[in-house]
Amino acid sequence: MTHMPARPVDGAEPLSALPAGPMRQAGTQRSGIYEISKVLTAPARLEITLANVVNVLSSFLQIRCGAIVVLDAEGQPEIAATGDIPPSSQSAARGVIPKAVIDHIATTGMPLIVKDVSKSELFQAEPQPPWSSGTVPISFIGVPVKADNKILGTISIDRVRNDAAPFPADEDVRFLTMVANLVSRTIRLHRFLNLEGRRPIGEQERPEKPIIAQRGAPGRHPPVKIDGIIGDSPALQQVVETVSVVARTNSTVLLRGESGTGKEFFAQAIHELSPRKNKPFVKLNCAALPEGVLESELFGHEKGAFTGAIAQRAGRFELANGGTLLLDEIGEISPAFQAKLLRVLQEGELERVGGTKTLAVDVRLICATNKNLEMAVANAEFRADLYYRISVVPIVLPPLRERPGDIPRLANALLDRFNKENQRELTFSSSAIEVMSQCYFPGNVRELENCVRRTATLARSSSIVSSDFACKNSQCLSSLLWKTDGSPGGITVDGHARSNVMPTSSPRSGGSIGASDEVSSVKACDPHGSGCPAMESRLTQRDRLIEAMEKAGWVQAKAARILGLTPRQVGYALRQHRIEVKKL
Q1: Fewer CB within a 10 Å sphere, N or C end of the chain?
Q2: What is the pLDDT of residues 341-356, one digit of tens each?
């Protein structure tokens, strides 16, 4: 494959020469990256995943069309995914983006910006170009998809150029480069599975099958059982399936979820299912130690390195050599320590505190946080380069309110543990199970365990009934978390704590994503109210779809953002459920 030389292109301008007017609010970009990361971690074939990424791009960028082209080992187009046509392979890939354009981006390894494709020789090499729009000027932006300095493909967008508005190339390139970084990790993961002779993720799934149906279809894969993980809800099983696939590799995993969702259990599961299972599993809570002590704990120290260092000590990285290291609350480390950690992750080498000898370590890293790292990066509180190092495979753990069907099994398992510890033989009555199933549990499994232990301790008979629960006697202090801002005499959740909650799995407001700079977080509410997410999760797929359409004013694109889907999937779901779109 002949590449064009890396030289200025007719009709294209270098990035620095273009005006740097703001393209959109930072909140929109954060929401876009979050939605794309969810698409990339969903179980599906690579072609379908990339097509869904393009659909998400079209929801967050004002574009005419977009495309992702994946190159094979010889540099030839292998997959071409767009939002308008089904994913294509080699023959159709050449018609999506001109071959000369792909060659130019692959050769230079740099973004390509063309303000008017009709004036660029790269776009005139093929007859009847599909990107041509007559006399309307079309601008083009493309970036390479790279991993370890190897070009895996390209991501590109084009839009109708508006001479009255500034050309927002800088913001577009930055956003597309972040997307390309995430896409490159997914491509490498799929290729690794193919080399290992394993069935690609989602190989037998239909491209047209919407995510609503996927989530509601337990049994599309044989269920995976992990010790310590209790539940068979679709939301939990999807995470378990992802964990079982990711565990076979050495990729860094970022576990995200609210407090009490079981991040440490899943980290342990990844280690036990990995080839490193016979090596050490070491864990450390980064928020529990000050920066100076944290450095010594992770990297170790030499004798006499500081007051009290009476002997040489190995750090957690050395102790986990050959195995797995879990860094919990990774979002709480200081910027200065982030730079030190980044070097270890990049080079695989470290020096003990007070030492000069460089030590090589082989560690599989798992990080966990309930903090919104995208917002922290935007606010310069968390290094972007470290974010990309630790967020290779992000896995979002569902809160308990999104899997209420698992509450009875969890409650019985927790009660069995209590019985063994206290030599009791307590059981739950059906009314007791009903009470717990209707609770909101802002503290997730940790709060459920608190509720079970308190109720079991105070139970007056061997069978726990509904009247034994504190909430039935107006003594449940956790219910104060359900009071919203402005409630008379109510206690509200601290604003700083809310800012540390990661984005919800799907936006529940009627507005479009990114309409505000603030990333919405789950607000505690009355579990018996109709607006509570715990009750919403029990609605049927058809009810959720109609509710989202009504909130969006029957605009499919807005409803897609509310549901966390693409407009195409919403349209398919409307046809599948025979829902007539209202004209307002």
Answers
A1: C
A2: 888 888 888 888 888 8
